[in-house]
Amino acid sequence: MAGIWLDVLDEIARTCTAHGRGDLLQTVRQKRAQLLDPTLRVLVIGEPNQGKSQLINAIINAPACPVGDGRTTVLPTVVRHAEAPTAVVAQAPPPTPGQATGAATVTIERTPVALNQVAASVAGLVGRRPGGGPAYVEIGLPRALLGAGVVLVDTPGTDEVAGLGAAAPVAAFNRADTVLLVSDSTRELSVAELNMLLHIMRSHPNVVVVQTKTDLVADWRTVAERNRQHLAEAGVPATLIPVSAALRLRAAAADDRAINAESGFPALIARLQRDRAGKADHLARAAVQTVARTVVEQLAAPLRAELATQEEEEQSGPIARLHAAQREVDELRRCSTRWQNTLTDEITDLLADLEYDLRDRTRQILRAVDEAFDTADPLVAWDTFQEWLERSLVEAAEANHEWLIQRCDWIARRVAANFDRYGYDVLPPWSMTMPEDMGQRLPELQRPMIDRFTTGQKLFTGMKGSYGGMLMFGLATTLAGMPMINPVSVGIGALFGGKSIRDESKQLLRRRQATVKTAIQRHVDDFFVRIVRDCRDAARQVQRMLRDHFTGLTEELQEAIVQSFRSAKQEADTDASVREQRQREIRLKMTRLAALYEQAQQLTGARSAPLLLEPQA
Q1: Does the pLDDT at position 478 exceed 80?
Q2: 123-132, long-range: CB within 8 Å, 24+ apart, which pairs?
Q3: Kind and range of the H or E run holding 178
Q4: Cα end-to-end distance, the chain, whole Å
Q5: Span 596-605, average pLDDT
């Protein structure tokens, strides 16, 4: 009958060995030896003064465990079958560093004690060697139930779940087949007791709650019903059996079957007998299920943690560096587009602004020329005006070129700002200065051909004007009997001649002024075309210089980033291959653990909650 669950348990042991967990392997081996042992070990636990010792005495109908002596129970009491009543104190030697707990090499020292010293032995006053290891009291009695293979273990009282290991020796607790939690009928199950049950159920599937002292509480049935509700609400699948040790002992003394039935012990003893008979089958299957859950959980936990760690490393390891390198490549591509667009746009704007600036400055000069030659005579003011015009044009050209230098420097910094994220100075080693021969580079101003009003022209113009006046007034004076040429006509002719000379002189002045303005306009236009051409050439040279510099810089950065990308990709590919291989191994192990767990759960045909084998997100 042990074939199926024993095969599963052996597979669990092999799995522990494959995972390198010697501690779990030792536990599985101990559990295997325990399940193959036909003896049923019953561990009795509970809070102080709940009637644990009296419960054991009533089960075997003998005063094996001391009750009511006023001494504190310090050592556990193991009650087993013996041909004659015996009592010994068993004590392990002090633990040796590096020695596994429960190792087979541990030699138990057994000190016999008198039966009348059992109470003192349980209190730790007799038979216990100071400085030794864990100890317990072992009592042997000739009883049929004990002879059938039942071993009862009485533990010191405890009211703390965390103190459970101190209340019962670890070896005895792990080797228990059935656990009896004792709670009297004077109150309902406490929160500490329910927590203790939840703790026990994780490693012991066979737990019975024994409600003692029913003879002292009239409404013990109500308490029992409420306790069953508490167990159901807490999710503890434990059977509750109400009993009375006093009635059991009284029935044994009077050999009264009715009182014995009323004590509730027949149900408890029947449960122990069923557990004893079913240890090699039902109890063993349930125990193997529990062992499988515990082992699989402990083996799967580091695997889940490793998977989670690998996922975190994937976000911050070579894959992350590969993504970062890819982002750098994309960012450099965008940076290249940005700086080229910036350079083209800024140079275009610069050329337009330079032309507008120079046009505005030349217009101001032309307005000053128009205002000056509206009144000035070019014959008189030309030399002074020519000097002023050349100086004004040189100043305009220098101001325009100075602005060109400032804007080119600003453009270089504006383009270089696109490379700020790369953390070093990327400005080109260049400088633009003002040309020293700016005045010599301007077109030469030629003196315009200006008409002069000569003496002969004045005499001829005066004669033409005086002739008409003298003739007109001479004809008028002939009507008065005077000759045509007379003093009056001569005087009038002289006036008309002077007026003709003045009018012709003004017309010649206006023609000279218009001629000069036109000549200056042509000169300024030639100046504008030449300066604009020079500025355009200078701006284009700057554009080509900046383009070549930042293109070389982009190529240098691209080479470094692409090399980094290749290294990151190679590293990521290698790391991904190793990680993928390791993940396959982990998932294969977890799949095998899940199959092992499922195989163990099928021992009883009951479906337990599935284990979480995948790492949580």
Answers
A1: no
A2: 123/71, 123/72, 123/73, 123/74, 123/75, 124/74, 124/75, 125/71, 126/89, 127/88, 127/89, 127/91, 128/75, 128/89, 128/91, 129/91, 131/94, 132/91, 132/92, 132/93, 132/94
A3: strand 178-184
A4: 43
A5: 77
Alpha carbon distance 451, 39 (integer Å): 147
Please determine, for residue 433, whether its predicted confidence score (pLDDT) is greater than 50: yes
Using the Cα atoms of residue 141, residue 144, residue 148 and residue 150 in order, give the sign of their dihedral: negative
Cα 418-419-423 angle, rounded to 5 deg:
140
Are 397 and 365 in contact by the 8 Å Cβ rule? The answer is: no
Helix, coil or strand: residue 448: coil
| 3-state DSSP assignment of residue 112 | strand
Tokens of 553: 């810089």
Over the stretch 40-69, which tens digit does the pLDDT of each residue have?
A: 999 999 888 888 989 999 999 988 888 876
Reported confidence tier of residue 470, pLDDT bands at 50, 70, 90: low
pLDDT tens for 268-315 read 999 999 989 888 888 888 888 888 888 888 888 888 887 777 766 666
Q: What is the C-alpha to C-alpha distance for residues 338 and 285, in angstroms, rounded to an integer?
A: 73
Spatial contact of 278 and 597, defined as CB atoms under 8 Å apart: no
Coil, helix or strand at residue 271: helix
Q: Are 167 and 182 spatial neighbours (Cβ–Cβ below 8 Å)?
A: no
Please state, in angstroms and rounded to a whole number, the distance separating the CA atoms of residues 151 and 137.
13
Please provide residue 158's backbone torsions phi and psi, each rounded to the nearest 5 degrees. Answer: -150, 150
Q: Which DSSP category does 481 fall into?
A: T
Checking phi first, is residue 210 left (phi over 0); if not, alpha (psi -120 to 50) or beta? beta
pLDDT of residue 486: 63
* Cα–Cα dist 211/186, whole Å: 9
Q: Which of 143, 136, 209 is nearest to 178 (CA)?
A: 209
- Say if CB 381 and CB 450 are below 8 A apart: no
Mean pLDDT of the 411-425 span? 80
* Distance, CA of 425 to CA of 413 (rounded, Å): 10
Q: Is 291 helix (H, G, I), strand (E, B) or coil?
A: helix
Task: Output the DSSP codes for 404-436.
Answer: HHHHHHHHHHHHHGGGGGG-S----S------T
Instruction: Residue 439: name the closest of 399, 396, 394, 375 by CA.
Output: 394
Closest CA to 199 of 153, 234, 233, 169: 234
Q: Establish how many alpha carbons lie within 13 A of residue 295's alpha carbon, considering only the half-sphere containing its beta carbon.
A: 37
Q: Comparing C-alpha atoms, which of 22, 31, 23, 135 is closest to residue 74? A: 135
Label residue 70 left, alpha or beta by phi (over 0 means left) and psi (-120 to 50 means alpha): left
Mark out the alpha helices in 237-317 (DSSP H runs): 245-254, 257-263, 265-277, 284-316
CB 167 within 8 A of CB 158: yes
Q: How many residues does the chain have?
A: 617
- The backbone region for 87, taken as left when phi is positive above 0, alpha when psi lies in -120 to 50, beta otherwise, is beta
* CA distance linking residue 182 with residue 159, whole number of Å: 12
How many secondary structure helices (H) and strands (E) does the chain include? 17, 9
**Do 42 and 178 meet the contact criterion of CB atoms below 8 Å apart?**
yes
Short-list 203, 201, 259, 278, CA closest to 235? 201
pTM score:
0.59
